[in-house]
Design a protein that fits this description.
- The protein has 13 helices and 16 strands.
- The chain is α+β, with helices and mostly antiparallel strands.
- The longest helix is centred in the middle third of the chain and has 29 residues.
- It has a seven-stranded mixed sheet with strand order 5-6-7-2-14-13-8, sandwiched between helices. Strands 9-16-15-12-10-11 form a six-stranded mixed sheet, sandwiched between helices. Strands 1-4-3 form a three-stranded antiparallel sheet.
- The chain is globular and about 55 Å long.
- Helix 7 crosses helix 13, helix 8 packs across helix 13 and helix 11 crosses helix 12.
């Protein structure tokens, strides 16, 4: 059943070094896994999952390799023979308390996210749970070590392995990014280009200086969201909540901004709402200037086309794959605002600066240089220090815009989150058709009530939506 990697391909891929970012993720202080939770509309067919993985994922070298350390201390991928059935796990649900299915899935996901992976074999596993929840008839949970790839790579792999429900032979499509043509007016075009170049250089220098201050001494204000400095990796609670993509798009169109701007604005409003309830009067937002920042993951590669990944799995062709992300430090506007739309305005203003900055690319190159000159440990200490001086990590990944099935199992939703690192809070957003799924990975020793935080994020979106509707109605009346 299925084919293993050819001997020639194994010899070619043997002892391939890990990429710089992947090497960081296998270091104990930055250990991190990605957990995918897939809701299915029907009872999941485990045999279809096994056969599908044999025909797709296993043909990617990293899914049929383990990580080993060579004598010189370099981490390399070593091809091994993989028995897919050992990586597809079907737990006996009779041994668990499943009276509350949603709570059971939440606890099960949190448990596998917090359990260290066996580094002596390929770093992935897939759990099949045929239990009905409020949003699905069955659930599949994939646990993948972050060294395999970043969120964009893994989402691209998931899409390349899926097919449209409406056309079972066709791969899904994602929302295309609109391109804007430059004006061809003579004279003004050159002036715009020159001004943009100056703006990019100036903005990049400012952002790099802020990053240097963060690295040296500038730490976020101690709040109920901030973890204690140290190397201790604690168990994480993974929770998710589904919101309407149409609501987010309505705000986006009313405010003339991007979806990510709305999600960041909603996050700022939700954090402000949560901290106003949890903080002492002296620390409440608005009564003190709170410094609260997040590290935002930035995809540095050109878009990886689904067709390229499909060709890679079917024919063994080459395709950009793995971890090619940089980070930017994003200041979060934590205030008690009378106008809820101010949160999304602030998010857009800051993100407009970050979008023209070369900060993420330069920092990625800097980490590579430090690893070459001073070794992996020096780079690990720098990255840990940045994460230790900030409060949370934020990212968003775009999913399919129409309903898809994975290995003949139609999906109702997909969520993803990362677990690991020194921060107490990781926030991910994933879109699927007309939904956006909020995913929180929380250190409950720091944030004991993650459901309250999630409620505050959702309620903040509702408040921003009402304010945007009033703004739209006012425009129509005028």
């Amino acid at each position: 059943m299925g084919k293993h990697i050819d001997r020639e391909e194994q010899e070619t891929a043997a002892n391939e070094p890990l990429s710089p970012v992947s090497r960081l993720f296998v270091m104990p202080g930055l250990y991190c896994v990605i957990v995918l939770t897939l809701g299915f509309k029907t009872r999941c067919k485990p045999s279809a999952i096994v056969e599908g993985i044999k025909n797709t994922w296993i043909k990617l070298p990293r899914f049929s390799s383990k990580v080993e350390m060579e004598k010189n201390g370099q981490a390399v991928w070593v091809p091994v023979t993989v028995r897919v059935e050992d990586h597809v796990i079907l737990p006996d649900l009779n041994h668990f308390n499943t009276e509350n299915p949603d709570q059971f899935i939440e606890d099960y996901t949190s448990n596998i996210a917090s359990t260290p992976m066996d580094m002596s074999r390929p770093l992935w596993e897939f759990h099949v749970l045929n239990i009905k929840t409020s949003n699905a008839e069955s659930v599949g949970i994939g646990k993948l070590h972050h060294s395999l790839g970043d969120g964009v790579s893994l989402m691209s792999l998931l899409l390349a392995s899926s097919r449209k429900v409406s056309d079972p032979k066709a791969p899904p499509t994602t929302m295309a990014t609109k391109t804007h043509a430059d004006s061809n007016a003579k004279g003004w075009w050159c002036i715009r280009r020159f001004w943009l170049m100056i703006n990019i250089i100036f903005t990049t220098l400012i952002e790099l200086f802020k990053f240097w201050l963060t690295l040296c001494f500038m730490r976020d204000t101690k709040t109920p969201l901030m973890s204690e400095p140290g190397d201790i990796t604690r168990p994480r609670k993974c929770i998710n909540r589904i919101i309407s993509l149409d609501d987010v798009k309505m705000i986006k169109n009313t405010m003339k901004m991007k979806v990510n701007d709305v999600l960041l604005g909603m996050t700022q409003a939700g954090l402000s709402r949560y901290l106003s309830k949890k903080s002492d009067d002296d620390m409440a937002p608005g009564k003190k200037n709170i410094r609260l920042r997040g590290t935002v993951a930035v995809n540095l590669r050109p878009d990886t086309k689904i067709e390229d990944l499909t060709s890679m799995m079917e024919k063994g062709s080459k395709c950009r794959w793995g971890n090619f992300v940089g980070i930017v430090v994003f200041p979060l506007w934590v205030r008690c605002e009378d106008d809820p739309l101010e949160y999304v305005r602030k998010a857009k203003s800051t993100m407009d600066m970050k979008r023209i900055s070369m900060e993420a690319l330069i920092l990625y190159g800097l980490v590579k240089c430090i690893m070459k000159i001073f070794g992996d440990k020096a780079a690990e200490n720098i990255v840990k220090r940045v994460f230790g001086h900030t409060t949370l990590t934020f990212s968003s990944v775009m999913g399919p815009k129409e309903e898809v099935s994975l290995f003949d199992n139609p999906m109702s939703y997909v969520t993803a989150t990362a677990s690991g690192g020194p921060q107490a809070l990781i926030i991910h957003f994933v879109s699927y058709v007309d939904k956006i799924i909020i995913n929180l990975a929380v250190d409950t020793t720091v944030i004991p009530d993650p459901h309250q935080l999630c409620d505050d994020l959702v309620e903040s979106l509702d408040i921003i939506k009402l304010a945007a509707l009033e703004k739209g109605v006012h425009k129509m009346e005028v």
